[in-house]
């Protein structure tokens, strides 16, 4: 099977930042467009960011990570391009003395397909193919950490799948049609739970024993939203002590998302007062989960 050239990938492009609907074109057509070179050169001569932004807003823009329709919103993603574009700005990396060698050093990384001067000429933008584009945010988060280990700070806003890239120009861009898809993926650290309390709190000990069984046997007691909500309410009655247990129960479900779970528990701590921990034990009982060490 013939290998696809990633520069033939279709992306959404826009006629300036005020273009709402945009159109599509191949990545190579956008990156190698020379019709606006004089405007970009003029922009790079301007003294202030405000002046540069006035020209920048009128230049063609692109969403490197995919095609959006009818408008540029994450909910309107039609197809991910399999690519991620990150910015490495000079102002964020003032600790680097040999800035002129940054492109040369980046070009040694086999996962990088393209490197170019940014439109201002004060930084670089880098295009990287992704191995797991359906997990765009997780891949970006790990990429951010990998760059940091190399001493480079990338713009955190680049994790936004809808982020627009302004047309730029580089006399000698780095091009690698054989770039290897980046496989890094960041997973939120698992909440640490002490299953054996030493504060003589009998209720917490019982909850801990139930959650130990839930995690060990991968029992999902939050199969629908109402169950998840009730479990959360019951555990929120324990205050912050209930938070790690809510994560344990929630993550047995394939829809578990760490940040969503955190947000829900924060909300329950503030608003729910009429559901106690007894409801948690009742739900556990339905699944054959008991807080007692010997239920015979």
UniProtKB/TrEMBL annotation:
GO terms for molecular function: hydrolase activity, acting on acid anhydrides. Residues 218-283 form the Primase C-terminal domain. InterPro entries: BT4734-like_N (IPR014907), PriCT_2 (IPR014819). Pfam families: BT4734-like_N, PriCT_2. Residues 55-174 form the BT4734-like N-terminal domain. Coiled coil: none annotated. This is VirE protein. It comes from Coprobacter secundus subsp. similis.
